[in-house]
Every structure is written in structure tokens, then in C-alpha cells.
Amino acid sequence: MPQYNDHIETLIVRSFDNSLTPEDQAHLQAWLHKDIANQQYYNLIKKTWAIAGQADNDFIPDTARNWERFRQQIMPAKVSFIHKYRNAIRIAATLIVIAAAATIWHTFFYHPMIDITTAAHEKKNITLPDGSQVSLNQNSHIRYASNFNGNERAIQLEGEAFFNVSQQVDKPFIVNAGNTRTQVLGTSFHIRDDKAGNVAVSVVTGKVAFSATGNERKLVLTQGNQGIATPDKPVQESKITDPNFMAWKENKLIFRDTPLSVVIKNLEEYFNIDIEVMNDTLLSYTYTGTFDHPKLEEVLEVVSESTDLNWKKIQDKYVLSKQVQ
């Protein structure tokens, strides 16, 4: 449901005549990016406002002119009643436009939103209203309308998910994650939003259009390629080289002469843990091996034995160190 209040609606109306301060503009943009429904509500008010703007702004009802004649008989002529009345009309018109937009929204456009969240070590498989499949990784959140009756199938994602999208040529599938937008017609792809402003989209089948909000540059990514967006750089395209980018979904870890620094990163992400290495020189060690449905302590035992390391758990952290000869 759109998150609106009197202050937000005031900012929306003021944005139409470019009277917002930079601070107000930033506040409005943050509200728009917070929820898909907010953007839809803004667009509806904008359309309604445009229709209302076609009327004559200087129109004054006969009742106002009649009241003005009466006022001149009982009040000093210096009081500008018409000016105040015009302001009142504009204010009333603004309220009518907002009320009409809200009524139209709730009657014809509003559909309940569905929110699904996963906790640590929890994964969920979701079937969307169009039949598309979503695998949601741990510590993630997804939000979408209970039906896709509009012109697009819009999804809001925080965290990590894999999408297998059913094809509908006339209704694109949109995923908003962080400050990015991914658009597809029918394909399968993976999105990871690390909540620090870095978003990666990896295409498994088909192709997607990937872009950063507010940036006209749009990458068309095909199978085997990925797009990466960071807060301080434009979106970049590269080949998918990490065999474990979907390890959480496939329950499989693959290492091929992989540096220990990368092995540790993969283990931290897969098991949602912290690993500390006592000596940075150990990070250049390499490891080769595959784990199906890996279990943390078994993986640590095998990797440590293969690289002449020891491991131990200290409070909530796992520590790797060189074996003493």
C-alpha cells in the first residue's frame, strides 16, 4: 500500500510547479524509491493534476462576485477578499485533486501487497501471481502486488534471490533492488543486493535490461554475463566467473585452484559466519574440491587438512592458523 501522509502529498503537489527545496526534493525522491506503490500513487496524482490543470485558473464563481459586492458595502475597500478567495479556491482544488486521486487509487488500482522475509539460515521458494518462481536466500525480503493487473510485473527486492520468470511479452517483469532496475520478459537470473549499494545481476538464461536509477545507460545482459552497479560507478558488464554465485540455491560449493581468500568469502556467505585468518600470507594458499550439501565443520576440516591449517571456533568466530610443525 502506498505510504502517504499530508506532508508527502504537499511535496508531491509542490513538485509540479518546481517549488521544492533541495531538501524537500531529496525527501520526495527517497519516498518514491522506498516502495513501488509510492511511485504508482505519485503518477496517479500527477495525471489527475494535469487534467485539473486544464481548467481556467482565474475562474471565480458567481457566488464569489456576489459576495464581493456585498462585502464592499460593509467593509473597507482595501481588504483584498478576492485574492484570499482565489487562494482558498486553489487550496480547495489541491485537496480535491488529492482526494480524487486517493479515491481512484483505492477503487481501481490498489491491490494488497505481499511481503515475504527470510531469517538467517532460512530460504523460501515462492510462486508469484503470474506463475514465475522465486528462490529467496537468507536475510532477504521481497515485496509484490497480490496480482499483476497493471502494465508490468513489479518486484521489490532486498537481499538475494533467483528468478525463473514466465514469459509475457506484453507485460515486462521488473525487479527493483537497491538503486537499480532489472527488466525482463521471460528468463532466469540471479540478483544480489548487499545493502551497501552494490547490486549484481547474473543471467542464467535469456537476457535482461539492467540499469541504475537516474542513469539512462542500460546494459542488455545475455546468458553467462553479469552486470554490477556500485554507488560511485556506472553499471559494468563482465563474464560470470564465480562458480559459487548460486551456491546457496544449489547447495553446492565448487573450488578449482581457488585462493583461500575467495574460499573464505564463499564460506562466510554460504554459512553466514565470520572467518578470521591469523596470518595474511595464508590467503594466497589455494584449494581444489567440491562439496554437495556442505556442512560447515566438515568443510573447515577438509580445507584445513588440505592446506596444512588448523581451525577453531572462538565465541562466534572461526579462526584459521598455520599448523605448528
SSE diagram, text form:
Elements: H1 6-16, H2 22-34, H3 36-52, H4 62-74, H5 81-109, E1 113-117, E2 124-127, E3 133-136, E4 141-145, E5 153-158, E6 160-164, E7 173-177, E8 180-184, E9 188-193, E10 199-205, E11 207-212, E12 218-222, E13 225-230, E14 233-239, H6 247-250, E15 252-259, H7 260-271, E16 274-277, E17 286-292, H8 296-306, E18 309-314, E19 317-322
Parallel strand pairs: 5-7, 16-19
Antiparallel strand pairs: 1-4, 2-3, 3-6, 4-5, 6-9, 7-8, 8-11, 9-10, 10-13, 11-12, 13-14, 15-17, 18-19
Helix pairs in contact: 1-2, 2-3, 3-5
Tell me what you see in this structure.
With 325 residues, the chain is an alpha+beta fold. The chain has 3 domains: 6-109, no CATH class; 113-239, Sandwich (Jelly Rolls), CATH 2.60.120; 247-322, Phage tail protein beta-alpha-beta fold (3-Layer(bab) Sandwich). The chain has 8 helices and 19 strands. Strands 1-4-5-7-8-11-12 form a 7-stranded mixed β-sheet, with no helix packed on it. A 7-stranded antiparallel β-sheet has the order 2-3-6-9-10-13-14, with no helix packed on it. The longest helix is centred in the N-terminal third of the chain and has 29 residues, at 81-109.
